[in-house]
Design goal:
Radius of gyration: 19 Å
Number of domains: 2
Helix content: 25-40%
Strand content: 15-25%
Structural class: alpha/beta
Strand order of the largest sheet: 6-7-8-3-9-10
Distance between the termini: 37 Å
Length: 251
């Protein structure tokens, strides 16, 4: 589904991602790990169109989408969440989820001005679908709440519901368990597995190694912007280069 070929991104004299290549198969949970500053979020930003690569290719369903803006990638059914919450706190929870479906709705100004029946029906259907997605991610009880009234852990799941509203084929999650307690992390782990079971390919950046090892079919390890290792959870866990990068060579 996704193939990265010799991807490089430089910011002035700093190369944040250097000649990285890997493949992601459809229907898998693929994790990207590495120490702080390894280039994980930069890699995500390259894949999702926030940054334009200095060189290399990003093949999504065999199409080179390197440098394509995020809205065009969303139309091709790629969606993501962010490390820092990007929830609209001045909106209701369900309206936040509906925002994720905007590409599939009638955006005609005239239709909105005159409230055509077809538009009203579409809005009603979108609201019902958003409520179902909130149930799916486990925050259905907040359907009528304001986003600012929700706890942090619920907001993390609300972001996933909004991303799912775009009906993605591939979903990129940037540290979905960051800032969560043990119970909330277990809930996120179960949700990610549930998303994958629904047929969505998941790519995950995460520091919680227990979550990564429990979930991942395949793991890519970055260090100083370069690919250090990749393989199954068992292979990565036993790799001496990975152990050295995380714990220090003497350890």
């Amino acid at each position: 589904m996704l193939e990265i070929k010799n991807l490089t991104k430089s910011f002035g004299g700093v190369t944040a991602v250097q000649d990285v290549s890997f493949k992601i198969s459809e229907g898998t949970i693929h994790s990207v790990i590495g120490p702080n500053g390894a280039g994980k979020t930069t890699l995500f930003n390259l894949i999702t169109g926030v940054y334009t690569p200095t060189s290399g290719e990003i093949l999504f369903k065999s199409e080179n989408v390197a440098g394509m803006p995020p809205e065009q990638l969303a139309r091709r059914r790629m969606s993501r969440t962010f490390q820092n919450l990007q929830v609209c706190m001045n909106m209701s929870a369900i309206d936040n989820v509906m925002v994720g479906a905007h590409l599939r709705l009638d955006q005609s100004v005239f239709a909105a001005m005159f409230r055509w029946p077809a538009l009203r029906r579409a809005d009603k259907a979108c609201r019902e679908e958003a409520a179902q997605l909130m149930d799916f991610v486990g925050v259905g009880k907040y359907a009528n709440a304001h986003a600012s009234q929700m706890p942090y852990g619920a907001l993390k799941r609300l972001e996933i519901a909004r991303a799912m509203a775009a009906k993605p084929q591939i979903l990129l999650l940037d540290e979905p368990a960051a800032g969560l307690n043990h119970t909330e992390t277990a809930e996120i782990e179960a949700l990610i597995r549930k998303v994958a079971d629904s047929g969505v390919t998941v790519v995950l950046v995460e520091h919680d190694m227990k979550l990564v090892m429990n979930l991942s079919h395949h793991i890519l390890v970055l260090d100083y912007g370069k690919k250090l290792a990749e393989g199954s959870a068992a292979e990565v866990r036993a790799n001496p280069d990975v152990i050295a990068a995380y714990l220090g060579a003497s350890a």
